[in-house]
């Protein structure tokens, strides 16, 4: 059973060397000292430790296997939590993309809208979307893999059909990550802007400040990337909604993000005076 750790895992060699150094150092003595010969058994122990700790790739393979074959939803969640810890490292994220994103993609829609859907299943979907958004974050290599492996249509399907706001929020995080410095992603989302704008409008009317803030951030990035999305946002009457949040939200972060989104929309209609007329 894999349990998520609160920090990224070191690889086997790093961990073994660290432990060896801590247990065999001469730190209490700050003066120069003569090193004594170590017992060969110490080195044999070190080699055994190095060989016993699975590499990140081996751990990811096991997580993928669990997602594919283990029916237990708790095990799937644990596997996704471990994957999330691992892919914080951009090189490991790229390794996962090479291994294949198919099982994580399937987990993104696990039991979605099925009769046996439940909170655990929704958490599986939420965690899978989180893993995918982390992989895409400022990572052209993994962004390319996400596009080529057909993940974006799944994201749009989630935005259209998901009934769980936390799942929707994490799916929007994928949109946000795939919008920045990713022209192919920008074009794809512009082609599906109606679904995205409808979803954002729904979230902007949420009472959850975290969801509102995320919607503002995603809208700003999309509008910065594509003029057509700015036009769609204005036509969908998002300006008054953003203005309401900027002026009246009790959450400072929401006010700030709403203001930034409005500034991005203002560039579409040339100046703030025109924007105020639209609102």
UniProtKB/TrEMBL annotation:
<feature type="domain" description="Nucleotide exchange factor Fes1">
    <location>
        <begin position="17"/>
        <end position="96"/>
    </location>
</feature>
<dbReference type="InterPro" id="IPR013918">
    <property type="entry name" value="Nucleotide_exch_fac_Fes1"/>
</dbReference>
<keyword id="KW-0677">Repeat</keyword>
<dbReference type="Pfam" id="PF08609">
    <property type="entry name" value="Fes1"/>
</dbReference>
<feature type="repeat" description="HEAT">
    <location>
        <begin position="238"/>
        <end position="277"/>
    </location>
</feature>
<dbReference type="InterPro" id="IPR016024">
    <property type="entry name" value="ARM-type_fold"/>
</dbReference>
<protein>
    <recommendedName>
        <fullName>Nucleotide exchange factor Fes1 domain-containing protein</fullName>
    </recommendedName>
</protein>
<dbReference type="GO" id="GO:0000774">
    <property type="term" value="F:adenyl-nucleotide exchange factor activity"/>
</dbReference>
<dbReference type="InterPro" id="IPR000225">
    <property type="entry name" value="Armadillo"/>
</dbReference>
<dbReference type="GO" id="GO:0005783">
    <property type="term" value="C:endoplasmic reticulum"/>
</dbReference>
<dbReference type="InterPro" id="IPR011989">
    <property type="entry name" value="ARM-like"/>
</dbReference>
<dbReference type="InterPro" id="IPR050693">
    <property type="entry name" value="Hsp70_NEF-Inhibitors"/>
</dbReference>
<dbReference type="InterPro" id="IPR021133">
    <property type="entry name" value="HEAT_type_2"/>
</dbReference>
């Amino acid at each position: 059973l894999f349990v998520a750790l609160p920090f990224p895992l070191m690889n086997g060699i790093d961990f073994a060397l660290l432990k060896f150094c801590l247990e065999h150092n001469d730190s209490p003595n700050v003066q120069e000292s003569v090193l004594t010969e170590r017992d060969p058994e110490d080195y044999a122990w070190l080699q055994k430790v190095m060989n016993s700790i699975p590499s990140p790739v081996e751990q990811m393979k096991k997580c993928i296997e669990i997602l594919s074959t283990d029916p237990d939803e708790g095990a799937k969640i644990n596997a996704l939590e471990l994957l999330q810890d691992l892919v914080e490292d951009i090189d490991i994220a790229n390794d996962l993309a090479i291994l294949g994103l198919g099982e994580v993609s399937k987990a993104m829609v696990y039991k979605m809208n099925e009769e046996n859907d439940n909170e655990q299943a929704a958490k599986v979907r939420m965690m899978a979307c989180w893993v995918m958004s982390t992989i895409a974050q400022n990572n052209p290599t993994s962004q390319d893999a996400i596009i080529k492996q057909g993940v974006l249509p799944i994201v749009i399907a989630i935005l259209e059909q998901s009934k769980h706001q936390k799942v929707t929020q994490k799916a929007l995080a994928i949109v946000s990550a795939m919008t920045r410095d990713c022209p192919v992603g920008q074009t794809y989302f512009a082609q599906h802007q109606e679904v995205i704008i409808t979803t954002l409008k729904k979230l902007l009317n949420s009472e959850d400040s975290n969801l509102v803030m995320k919607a503002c951030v995603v809208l700003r990035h999309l509008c910065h990337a594509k003029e057509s999305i700015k036009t769609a946002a204005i036509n969908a009457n998002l300006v008054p909604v953003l203005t309401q949040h900027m002026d009246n939200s009790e959450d400072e972060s929401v006010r700030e993000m709403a203001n930034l989104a409005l500034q991005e929309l203002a560039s579409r209609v040339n100046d703030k005076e025109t924007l105020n007329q639209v609102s």
